[in-house]
Every structure is written in structure tokens, then in C-alpha cells.
Write a structure and sequence with these properties.
single chain, 585 residues, alpha/beta, 7-stranded mixed β-sheet, 5-stranded mixed β-sheet, 39% helix, lyase, palmitate
Length: 585
Amino acid sequence: MASPGSGFWPFGAEEGSAAAESPGTARAWCQVAQKFTGGIGNKLCALLYGDAEKPAETGAKAAPGAAEQRPACACDQKPCSCPKADVNYAFLHATDLLPACNGEMTTMSFLQDVVDILLQYVVKSFDRSTKVIDFHYPNELLQEYNWELADQPQTLEEILLNCRTTLKYAIKTGHPRYFNQLSTGLDMVGLAADWLTSAANTNMFTYEIAPVFVLLEYVTLRKMREMVGWPGGCGDGIFSPGGAISNMYAMLIARFKMFPEVKEKGMAAIPRLVAFTSEHSHFSVKKGAAALGIGTDSVILIRCDERGKMIPSDLERRILEAKQKGFVPFLVSATAGTTVYGAFDPLIAIADICKKYKIWMHVDGAWGGGLLMSRKHKWKLNGVERANSVTWNPHKMMGVPLQCSALLVREEGLMQSCNQMHASYLFQQDKHYDLSYDTGDKALQCGRHVDVFKLWLMWRAKGTTGFEAQIDKCLELAEYLYNKIKNREGYEMVFDGKPQHTNVCFWYIPPSLRSMEDNEERMSRLMKVAPMIKARMMEYGTTMVSYQPLGDKVNFFRMVISNPAATHQDIEFLIDEIERLGQDL
């Protein structure tokens, strides 16, 4: 049930609304406000409706099927166990909620119970005594619950049970011991912003239906471009559904910049294009080439050094080879923070090569872009200001709730020219406001989710300095882990030296392998160690960390830290848990 002050309450009644016209309805709203907010509800209703409309009139009749009103409690227990309004959801359906006639009270009670479920999940996510995951195999979950869709509606009681069940088996990605992906953590302001975004339920294509959100996108993208280093935040940009799409946007715009006729005539009208990226880059570069008809064979992989950084001399060599074959180099995608090693390509040297051969330079900073917030670490992206486009995912290192990815473009208007289709039913040219704020025609999508508000609200709540402290802490934790295991018995580092980002790559060597010669048999057995430890982690539910092979290297752990809730103690726990689960292998 609800804890005091945690629920929904009305912020006011618009002139002409039912609450404004009907004293009875106003009293009902106030009683709900008192139920969910205690003394705050009294003050709120006194402010909104005057002293005569305070929720002291507990004798007012509720609508049929609505909650029985009871006085709000004043206890400090969380979760609160005091009696609340009772609604029998066993006989109610979605059709009893707003906009149903007299559905206000049932709606408020139902949403409060949903919030209770969510808040319990949030609190448990930060509780180290709870599991990161309650793992079940797919066939077990399919057999244990009926997930099928039916012709007849379920009751609201069953709907609430669906919510509880879903979260019961969800991975607690905000748990301080969840290290499995680049996107971890659960920010409270970001969560609140996501809830507000869903309540607003609008689309980002025109100013007329998303005025505040469109302006916030304009302000936020300009600030991000300033941090990249483009004068005055000049240029353009858009929030897209993830870094893979942002990278594809960059490839699309680079192609259009070189051959604008491709928009109407297609790939048959232009020469064979080739793009270049490092062998450690994200797979989305090849996937984008496939989607755009350029082809994966036209993405040339450039060799990396032992730390995973692109080798500029190899890039220039491969560009010259491609030109000699009659191909047209149109894009170099450098990486600022590779997925596995966390490597930062040498952007200044790559920018010099791109300038020399007149090639579009894109920087995939989906993982490493957040370091621009840190005065201590932003030097790792030196040269990013010379890029033509940049991908930056705030839902990774900055901890913004998924999804939040930005594509930033240095040349203003190019994205619009590349993608616009002039749909007259959306982008009428005789509207009464500045049409530059109708941003939808520069996107590939028509419907576009509001992804900016959670980033903007978190930035307001933390300030740049707050993000900086959060990012610096995560990098310090990564260095702490590295220092703990680099000379520890049973651990081998995948590469030498301190981590460049929060990626720490290592093998755990069980006692049975420590005295073996470094030969094929040892590698074959070592390859199985990380997967077996990971499986045990998930079955026990204690922690999660990723593993993978890379090139000629057999499976190793890739630890990444982006969750500000993690501490030194969590790092020590991970080390101990790996040893506990792997001792007998």
C-alpha cells in the first residue's frame, strides 16, 4: 500500500473543469489528496479551493465502486501499513478508469497502487541484500505464468499482479552490483522525468504538439555541441533511438553531403563508396552500411594497437588503397570509448587525415562522450571538435534512463536537407509561429519519443559539476579494481596499463590452471571459465558482469562501471564472488 506523501494528487482544477464547477467533486479530489499526502493535502486544497473546500468533510459519498475514504495516517513507517482506501479490483476493469464516468477515485487508487509497486522495486534495487536477478530459464517462465493475450479483459487485480510479476523477474539494473552493460544505474530525477514524459504522451515532430519538449531539445543539443567544442554550440542534432541509429544518421548525412543526388536517384547513381572504422568499433557501423545499401564489404576495418586504439598510419594506407581501386572514401568513424576495451582513438591524427583526403569525420562517442563533462578526463577526446558529427549517449556514462542518444552535426541545415519530405499534413508552411521549431522533418522517423526531458531535468538537478563528480567517481572505481587485481593471484590482465575508461578486462585463472603451461589445452579450458562463473552469478543472483572473446583472446571478463551507486565495497565483493564461484573450475 501507499507510503505517506508518495502518491498522486491534483495540482489544480482548470476553469470550466468538473472539479472547478462541482463542490462535491472538488471535495472528492481533496479527500484523495489528503489520503495520499497527509497534511500537504490540507494546505493544497485550502490553496486551490479555499478554506470551505478543505477535505475535512469525510462524509461525502464516493462514486460507485470508488474507494472508501479514510483519514490519512501520519506515521513514519516505510512502507506504511496503515489502512488506506479500499477498492475491490477483482470486479473492476480498465473501462472503470478514466475517462469513465465517475472514474476519478478508482483511477487515483489504481495509479497509487501501481506507484507503490514501482517504489518498492526502486527501494529494493538499491538494497544489497536483494538479488540482482531472480533467474529462471525461458521455458520455466513460460510454463510458470500465462503470458498469452486473450480476447476478454483481465480485472485490475490481475493487471496489478502482472505488474508485480514482471518486476519480480526483471533485472535490477540500478543495483549497485549490476555491472553487465554500459547502461546501468537508476537516477531518481531521471525516473521522475520519464514518468512525466509518459503522462504527457506526445510526439516530437512539431512545436504545436510538443512546445516545451521541442525547446528543451533545442537548448540541450546546443549545450552538448558547446561541450564538443563547436563555437557557440553551432550546428544541428537530434535525439534518436540509440547509438546505432545515431551512427547510421551520420553515415546517411555524410553520403548526402558528398552525393546529394543519392536522395532521389539511389546508390546506382553514385560511385562505389567505402567507409573506415577500427577493428574494435561498434558493430552498428557495419549494420548502418547494410541498411543504407552501402554494404558491409564497403566498411574497411583499420588495425588497432594493443590498447585498442586505431592506428592512423594504417588508416591512411587503407584510404590510398581504396582510392587506387576506384572506390570513393566518404566516411571515417572514429571511436571515443570502444565497447570492450574502452579505448579512445587518436582523434587529432584522424582529423588530420580526414582533412587531407576530404572525408567526413564521425566520432562515435556513445560510450565515451560523457567524459566531456569531466575536466579531469575530457582530454581523452581531444580533437573531437574537428569532427563533422558526433554520437553521444547520455543513457550510458551519464546514467540517464534508457533511451537517450544524441547525434550532433556541425553543419546546420544539412540534416534537414538530407531527410526532409515536406509532408504537408504536418509541416504546413503558413503556421503562425517560427517553423524552424518543427523539427520532425529532419528525422528519419515520423513518430519520435520524447527523450530529452530526462536528460534536461537531470542536468538541472545535478548541474554539469554533478555529472562531472559522478563520472569521475566511476573512473576512480575502475582504477581501484585494476589496482586490486593487477598483481593478485588468479588474475591476468588482458592488456597492460591503467584503464582508459571504466572498462577493466581480465581473466580469472582458477587454481587448477595456474600451474599449467600456456598452451592450447590451457586456452581451451580457460575459455570456459568466464561463461561458467557468469552462469553461477546469475543463478545465485549476486552480481552480473559481462564476458566475451576478442580476436585471438579467449573469453575474458569485461567489467564496466557507470552506476554511481557502486562503491569500493561492491568492487571488493565482485572480486571475492568471482573467486568463490570459480575456485573449483
